[in-house]
């Protein structure tokens, strides 16, 4: 039965890719997808799959021998194979520098990656800036599954080099210009920068991943995406020093569900309005998730800048907050600088529904919208948050909400009380 599911998925993917319709790529059945990636993790892929084991290409699982070129050679052989292919990263510790694993490829999609080893960076600072660490780019069909770990060792040097204007530090895993991607089971630890960075992609399923870094680690977003369509993130644990999931310009049709977030900065849409000619954001749903001891809960943030765009069709639903500082937040004054203008990002059709738990803030709901482009269609439904901060702190300040440049549609229970 498992092999039949595997063949069915591959047939659907191949049919969609052969048809060449880049605008209507096939949708994954999540249950089949999860079954498929675990088959990859266990190596149950059938006799017609050619295996490309990085050890056979000279990679050493000893944690001291640099194996970058060996990984690249194994990938290139798999990429150029004219049939079904699986790249195998076995158990052991592999020392790697920055590497680009790029197509176009000739394999019969998807490329399967059985990932059970531990990846360590070559040197503590070699990938600190200017280059991402492990990048998959420019092909269709990628299934990564296993119990492997990507350890960026950001605590060694990268996190110490914090400064204004510094370039973004290396992502553990960068996925760019890819279609039809499944990632399951893997762990990402202590990235120098983002843990997973997704850009210009279509059709993603990320499930059962574990992402962790200390709460003081700078800019270590768990999953960060831009200009990407059709993403589902589920059944995962993410705790970092920044956003658990961040969605910036051009992110569309994303579902995040059953994710445990904390520590970190919560689930964030934005920052938006940062770059010229940004693409709109729409169709974002975050539901059935929990947040514990995070800076923010459900957040939309935009720069005060001249760049216009729109963010719409956003749902935050069935979220549990545990000692969250800013459980519900729209911030259109993010990173205000002298001489800046009102945000030109129009936020509309946003629903916060069944948000419950505790907060350490006396002002638990903040909706600070743009004066020039006020928020439209904002709904708060069944909100129940209780203050659990220092009882002696601001004891004369009521538990409340703060709203500017927005008219809110209130439905059901509202704690804290609605804005006046």
What is this entry, summarized?
The chain has 420 residues and is mainly beta. Helices cover 10% and strands 49% of the residues. The termini are far apart.
Strand content: over 45%
Report the biggest beta sheet as strand number plus sense, adding barrel if it closes. 28 strands, parallel
Average pLDDT rating: 89
Radius of gyration: 22 Å
Distance between the termini: 59 Å
- How many helices? The count is 3
Structural class: mainly beta
Oligomerization state: single chain
Low-confidence stretches: 1-26, 125-129
Shape by Cα distribution: elongated
Overall helicity: 10-25%
Number of strands: 28
Family: Belongs to the glycosyl hydrolase 28 family.
Signal peptide: 1-20
InterPro entries: Glyco_hydro_28 (IPR000743), PbH1 (IPR006626), Pectin_lyas_fold (IPR012334), Pectin_lyase_fold/virulence (IPR011050)
Protein name: Exopolygalacturonase
List the helices and strands and how they pair.
Layout: H1 2-19, H2 30-41, E1 49-53, E2 62-66, H3 68-79, E3 84-89, E4 93-96, E5 99-102, E6 111-115, E7 118-121, E8 134-145, E9 149-151, E10 173-184, E11 187-189, E12 196-199, E13 202-207, E14 210-212, E15 223-226, E16 229-239, E17 245-247, E18 252-261, E19 267-272, E20 281-292, E21 296-303, E22 309-324, E23 326-334, E24 345-359, E25 363-368, E26 375-387, E27 400-404, E28 406-415
Parallel strand pairs: 1-3, 2-4, 3-6, 4-7, 5-8, 6-8, 7-9, 8-10, 9-11, 10-12, 10-13, 11-14, 12-15, 13-16, 14-16, 15-17, 16-18, 17-19, 18-20, 19-21, 20-22, 21-23, 22-24, 23-25, 24-26, 25-27, 26-28
Helix pairs in contact: 1-2
